[in-house]
Design brief:
There is one protein chain. This protein has 4 helices and 34 strands. 11% of the residues lie in helices and 41% in strands. The longest helix is centred in the N-terminal third of the chain and has 21 residues, at 2-22. The protein folds into 5 domains: 2-45, no CATH class; 50-150, Immunoglobulin-like (Sandwich); 154-243, Immunoglobulin-like (Sandwich); 251-343, Immunoglobulin-like (Sandwich); 369-460, no CATH class. It starts with a helix and ends with a helix. By secondary structure, it is mainly beta.
């Protein structure tokens, strides 16, 4: 009997060894009547547990929830355990939580899926985790939990002030996992002036140094921190540069007329903020203008601190014309620009008649002997030499020019005054260039008219 018991114990031991090597869940043995041992070989046909899929790397931000999944096929009665490989501590056995961390839990879904859940993840949770099966020897699979933290700025917006020509230092710092990179750009997307000869669209690094800064260096700068895990964050740094006023005026002279309106604009830039004023001066006085006469507005598209100072003058009168000066003053200096507002005088051109009399108008209409004597007397007063007219007297009807031995003389105008009254009997003649008209057609005086003139001349002598 002792020998049979020894054989039974040896057979049972061999079954357990075979179960461990082949992955059997359990074994059963039977003792026959002839004291022989029979094993149930059907158990050797069952499959051993194995992992269905490899575990994936899980990446979560600090404060979020992480889930690691382990899929096991044919687990049957084996136990599944989770462990933190970096700390070599057991987290759970089956669905029982071993650790005291209340953030951790394990769920089993669809008999083959085991999920390890960690809420409110911190940086300390970062590392490798293993899913184990208590086979002999134990089998396991591991996954990686990557805990990241988007950049968080250590300080907020700030302002930096320097004198013109000095060096400006701008800095930026952020906390992140993994460590972030830093990129500087201008807020207005203009180039960054590193020094007088170096201009860049952006700058990489925690610190930005601007050498020999001037008014164009002033403005807003953005430091953008990123580590590949959104969101990226930015810090705004305002650089102020102290400089004397810069000024551009509307021109040395502006011309306009009475009754018109005009605007005079000075474009200026200065820091710190300056005091501004328009001054009007003429021959008698210098008068600062009140603020109700002009407006101050920021100028877009120009360097910081740039403004327009516009003086509005409406319905000008004569006293508005003179010298206007815009004056800009701050702690760094003063600048001014003078414009002369000049009046334009419009001259009226007189309208003259160019109509010529009809060619058939007689120069000497018939008069009584008294009237004829009176007219002849006036001709003598104007030195018209007609005494000795031995040759025929010829007059050009177009030009009103007399020809005779005494020479060429213009005909008297209707508007000429010969005594206390104007002559109403002499036709108006348009005088033209003598040189152009002497060659024109001539008309001889009728014989009766000639005899009349000769009779008058003899009577006078």
């Amino acid at each position: 009997m002792k020998f049979q018991h020894i054989l039974l114990m040896v057979g049972t031991f061999l079954c357990f060894q075979l179960m461990s090597t082949q992955g059997l869940v359990s074994s059963r043995s039977f003792l026959r009547d002839d004291d022989s041992i029979t094993l149930d070989t059907s158990f050797f046909l069952r499959e051993s547990p194995h992992f269905g899929l490899p575990m994936q790397t899980v990446t979560v931000n600090v404060g979020q929830t992480a889930r690691l999944t382990c899929i096991i096929q044919d687990v049957v009665d084996y136990e599944v355990a989770w462990m933190n490989k970096d700390t070599n501590t057991v987290i759970s056995l089956g669905e029982t939580i071993i650790t005291m961390d209340a953030r951790i839990s394990v769920q089993r879904e669809q008999r083959s899926t085991w999920i390890l859940t960690i809420k409110n993840v911190t940086v300390r949770d970062h590392g490798y985790y293993t899913c184990n099966i208590n086979t002999q020897p134990p089998t396991s699979i591991q996954g990686y939990l990557k805990v990241v933290e988007p950049p968080v700025l250590e300080d907020g917006d700030e302002e930096v002030r320097v004198l013109e020509g000095m060096t400006a230092h701008l800095s930026c710092s952020a906390h992140a996992i993994p460590s972030p990179t830093y990129k500087w750009i201008r807020e207005d997307y203009n180039t960054i002036r590193i020094n007088s000869s170096t201009f860049v669209s952006s700058w990489i690094g925690r610190n930005l140094t601007l050498h020999h800064s001037n008014h164009r260096s002033a403005g807003g700068y953005l430091c953008i921190a990123s580590n590949g895990y959104p969101p990226s964050v930015s810090k705004r740094v305002i650089l102020h540069v102290y400089f004397a006023p810069l000024l551009r005026g509307p021109g040395m002279e502006v011309k306009t007329r009475v009754g018109q309106s005009v605007s005079l604009t000075c474009l200026y830039a200065a820091y710190p903020s300056p005091s501004v004023v328009w001054v009007r001066e003429d021959e008698n006085e210098v008068e600062p203008l009140s603020e109700e006469y002009y407006t101050i507005t920021p100028q877009d598209g120009h360097p910081p601190y740039t403004h327009n100072m516009t003086l509005q003058l409406r319905k000008l009168v004569h006293s508005d014309f003179g010298r206007y000066t815009c004056v800009v003053t701050n702690s760094q200096g003063e600048a001014s620009y003078t414009t002369v507002l000049r009046e334009v005088v419009v001259k009226k051109v007189p309208i003259t008649s160019t109509k010529s009399p009809p060619e058939n108008v007689s120069l000497f209409p018939k008069h009584s002997s008294r009237e004829t004597s009176h007219l002849s007397h006036h001709y003598h007063n104007y030195d018209y030499q007609t005494k000795n007219l031995s040759s025929p007297l010829i007059v050009n009807m177009k030009t009103g020019i007399y020809r005779g031995e005494g020479g060429i003389h213009p005909a008297p105008s209707r508007d000429q005054s010969y005594s206390t009254r104007r002559s109403k009997n002499i036709a108006r003649i348009s005088l033209k260039d003598v040189n152009n008209e002497l060659g024109g057609a001539e008309t001889r005086i009728p014989m009766k008219l000639m005899l009349l003139v000769l009779s008058i001349m003899i009577f006078l002598t």
